[in-house]
Amino acid sequence: MAAPPRLPVVAILLLLFLALAAAEPPQGERSALQAFLAGTPHERALGWNASTSACAWTGITCDKANATVIELRLPGIGLIGRVPPSTLGRLPNLQVISLRSNRLFGSIPGDLFTLPRLRSLYLQGNLLTGAVPAEVGRLTALEHLALSHNNLSGPVPFALNNLTGLRSLRLEGNRLSGSLPSISIRRLEAFNVSYNELNGSIPASLARFPPDSFAGNLQLCGAPLVDRPCQPFFPSPAPSPSGGGGAAVPASKKKRKLSGAAVIAIAVGAGAAALLALILLVLCAVHHHRQGSAANADDGGSKAAATPGTRGGFTPSTASGEMGGAGGGEYTSSSKEISSAAAAGGGAADRTNRLVFVGRRGGAAWQQGFDLEDLLRASAEVLGKGSLGTSYKATLEEGTTVVVKRLRDVAAARREFAACVEAAGAVEHRNLAPLRGYYYAKDEKLLVGDYLPAGSLSARLHGSRGTGRTPMDWDARMRAALCAARGVAHLHTEHKLPHGNIKSSNLLLRPDPDAAALSDYGLNQLFAPPPARPAAGAAAGGYRAPELLDARRPTFKSDVHSLGVLFLELLTGRSPAAAHHGDGAVDLPRWVQSVVREEWTAEVFDAELVRMGGGGAEEEEMVALLQVAMACVATAPDARPDAADVVRMIEEIGGGHGHATTEESEGTRGVSEEERSRGTPPSGATP
Predict the structure, then answer these.
(1) CATH top-level class for 311-340+348-450?
(2) Which long-range contacts (CB under 8 A, 24 or more apart) does 10-19 make?
(3) Where is the signal peptide (predicted)?
């Protein structure tokens, strides 16, 4: 008897594919989604066609078998009104809900708290009111909770402590009141309750988060708000009993009418105070206007002023090349939506106008974490303006924070731009801030990198020297000098790449003092040479080597000169562009040379550093580093040491400064940048 015919492998695979395609979530989940959409007005058509599988609907993600709905993502589609009850709660396997940046109002839907597998809940940027329900503690699988920029009120619930797996909690920009509960969640990495109406002392369990997490709450006190320590509370003495020191005065007798003269005096005083306030406002306005004009002149005549700390939507557009830098105020919701067509660039532009990840780790962990659309929707805060462009702190939906630098005056074509950025992205060293990706369009060029919250060396050295500031001691300055030298030496020896933009604002600090990192390296080829772009590069603001005529062509020796100026800045506490000798301003190396020539070497060192003292050993090290710095800023390039020699000389000055030698720092390449930035030992443990 003949054997039955066998189906070919291709036919079997086709049948399996058709079986999976025909798989459909239960009818109850499908009807719940339809009821949700029908009960919530929306501005954009979603195309939830009843004839197609629910797993193919816009914003819906099912599991691999298409057997159940696990994600609902409908950000910024114009949802209006209340979330209908008994809809989303009928999707028992939901893991992610993202309804951010819509116009939902009313209280937080109660049936969301019945979803046992929910890991991420993003409701920020809506108009929700009422309290944060204590029922949120039922979501024991929750890892990310974002309720920021709504109109929520009431206290922060203590029940949040039940969410032991929580990694990010964002409640900023609401009207929450009362005292903060002691939230002790070991895995919590991102926490923000800024710009609410909270009061009282910050619990010790939350003091590990930066001051920005608590900003805008005028009645909060305690660490980490060093300028607002909590005052002890002394209750007023109780009134004496009637039989004690005297009889109580009836309330009716305490009320006295003001005399006419008192009323006139109060009116005159109020008028004088108002006049004084008006004068002060005018003076402040004139002062700010002058400062803004000076800043624009120093920054290459840029017309777009950006104030550090201003929050706004970060919205570059592939169509127009515009990006929102500053919003309408500190409390403004900072998410703006762009259409998917604009995000993709449309048609052929989709293949070119996209976020490109660079480097070994940039293409792996980061590419899985977000894409261009996520970046365009992120909230943004201006960090500062430099010679290359404006830097923004961008916070993504999942709580990840990155730095986005919006470049200006880029002269490089796409191919040259990509080659330059990819070469910089290939660099891996603990003392060089990694470049993660870039975006190139006709009118918009962006760079994406790690956000290091500790700030720059420039801010640490030259920030306000008033009360509450922690001075930078000699050990910290020596470690910063060594970190900068090691980063430059690695660029020169391992990658044959000049840095080209060494300055204190580009040396970013970390909790680990041996892991400070230089940024903005290897980018000079992207910009037009002088005079179209004067002082663009290593030497802007006093760091530039005297022989460097073309800012696009930095050399190893010009890098060493800039490194020497950085050392002088650490020693003197002076900004390189603000040194003075007699009646005129000179660059920092010339000023130091003039003082040393007159044998007033002690006058060179920062008075703040001298006041802190440290004995003869520190003074000897300061003089030794001064000698290294003067060798680095020699007028003749050939007279300057190589960067590797500079590292060796600094290591020989003080063996106790910096726990890692050059070889040890090279050996940390296998550790992720996230671990290094947190000071995590190279054991591979997740922070």
Answers:
(1) alpha beta
(2) none
(3) 1-23
- What value, to the nearest 5°, has the Cα angle with vertex 220 and ends 214 and 226? 75
| Contact by Cβ (8 Å): 343, 353 | no
The residues, any chain, with a CB within 8 Å of residue 460's CB and separated by 6 or more, are 472, 509
Count the helices and strands in the chain (H runs, E runs): 17, 25
CATH number for the domain formed by residue range(s) 468-677: 1.10.510.10
Give the pLDDT score at 577: 67
Q: Residue 312 — pLDDT band, cuts 50, 70, 90?
A: very low
C-alpha torsion 136→137→139→140, nearest 10: 160
As a whole number of angstroms, the distance between CA 626 and CA 633 comes to 11
Q: What CATH number does the domain located at 21-221 have? A: 3.80.10.10
| Distance from C-alpha of 369 to C-alpha of 399, rounded to nearest angstrom | 11
Q: How far apart are CA 49 and CA 91, in angstroms?
A: 19
Among candidate residues 54, 4, 62, the one with its CA nearest the CA of residue 32: 54
Residue 273 has pLDDT above 90, yes or no: no
The pLDDT score that the predictor gives to residue 550 is 56
Report the distance separating Cα 107 and Cα 165, nearest Å.
25
Q: Where are the alpha helices (DSSP H) in 118-250?
A: none
- The reported pLDDT for the residue numbered 234 is 37
The gap from C-alpha 550 to its chain's centroid, in whole angstroms, comes to: 33
* Closest to 91 in 3D by CA, of 65, 60, 64: 60
| Residue 377: band (very low, low, confident or very high) from pLDDT cuts 50, 70, 90 | confident
Region for residue 125 given its phi and psi (left: phi exceeds 0; alpha: psi -120 to 50; beta: otherwise): left
The values of phi and psi at residue 662, to 5°, are: -60, -40
Residue 162: which region, alpha, beta or left (left: phi > 0; alpha: psi -120 to 50)? alpha
Q: How much is the pLDDT for 78?
A: 86
Q: Is 108 exposed, middle or buried (0-12, 13-18, 19+ CB in 10 A)?
A: buried
Cβ neighbours of 243 (radius 10 Å):
7
Tell me which residue has tokens 């009323």: 263
* Sheet containing strand 60-62, strands side by side: 60-62, 69-73, 96-98, 120-122, 144-146, 168-170, 190-192
CB 48 within 8 A of CB 72: no
- Location of each CATH 3.30.200.20 domain in the chain: 311-340+348-450
pLDDT over threshold 60, residue 543: yes
Contact 406, 382 (CB under 8 A): no
Q: Where in the chain do CATH 3.80.10.10 domains reside?
A: 21-221
Where in the chain do CATH 1.10.510.10 domains reside? 468-677
376 pLDDT higher than 80: no
pLDDT tens readout for residues 437-478: 899 988 889 999 988 888 899 988 887 655 556 788 999 999
Q: pTM, whole model, 2 decimals?
A: 0.53
Q: How many CB atoms lie within 10 A of CB 330?
A: 15
Kind and range of the H or E run holding 422: helix 414-425
